[in-house]
Amino acid sequence: MDEKILEEKRKKTKLVLSNVYNLPAMSSTMMEVSKLLDDPTTNTATLSKKIGKDQGIATKILSIANSPLYGLRRRVSTIDFAILVIGFIEIKNIILALSMMESFKNKTDKYMDQKEFWLHSLMTGTAAKRIAEDLDCYKGGEAFVAGLLHDLGIPVIHKYFHSSFVAICERVENEEVPFLTSELEQLGYTHQDVGKFLGEKWNLPASLCNVISKHHTPSLLEDPNDKTLAAIVHLADYMTQRLEVGSFYWDKEFVFDEKILEVLKFENMDALDEFVDKYKGAFEEELKLIKI
From residue 281, how far is each of 60, 79, 240, 244, 256 by CA, in Å? Predict the structure, then answer.
């Protein structure tokens, strides 16, 4: 694509995204929950009561807590117990991630199934947490949030650039062009760039923004910690495709970045695929338990 045309598309996209940032982002309930989490005197009962006012968020927190991949060893049936076993810091991260996803959610249509997207995001997040802990290479809670938000740019494009979203999908379907290529043609940016832009506007940690921006090509990141976290998310994303559980059509031509083998200390692809195959049962069990 001509560089001038590309730059023009980028300017238009940035202008829309700047306006997205200025919109009210969180529900009043989530704002109140966020304030409570910042108050050291807040107790579990108060926090639980406030979260319970938003049934959508409460249901999602319980789904996360009861995920076989998330790794809690007992059944969690109430929000107060979820807070107790997950901890305030991790609950805060989960709620921030969920509030972002809720803010940019749109109605389901023929081009985007919101339930399918949530399922993929949750599976990637919980798998990323489990991988980080099983390989003992990163904090599980941070890996979960990175996995949950990795595709944040997709619903943003669907909601605020809907005609472009339709054009992206139709070009991919009719001409078999990769999604990332079609995104660049329409917007001048990919969903990775869009996700990073909004992450920075929401003051998310730089490491998380970097992972969102390079979750398809984690080996391109320079910082070793960011590269490790992005490699974990990339592997979790790959697992949803390989195991055919929680996959999302936007990844239908997923290109695996083999350079992460060294980052995550796998000898070769055979060793990695053997590792992945061990997760199949947990993935299938999670699919049965998730409430969406």
Answer: 22, 27, 12, 12, 22
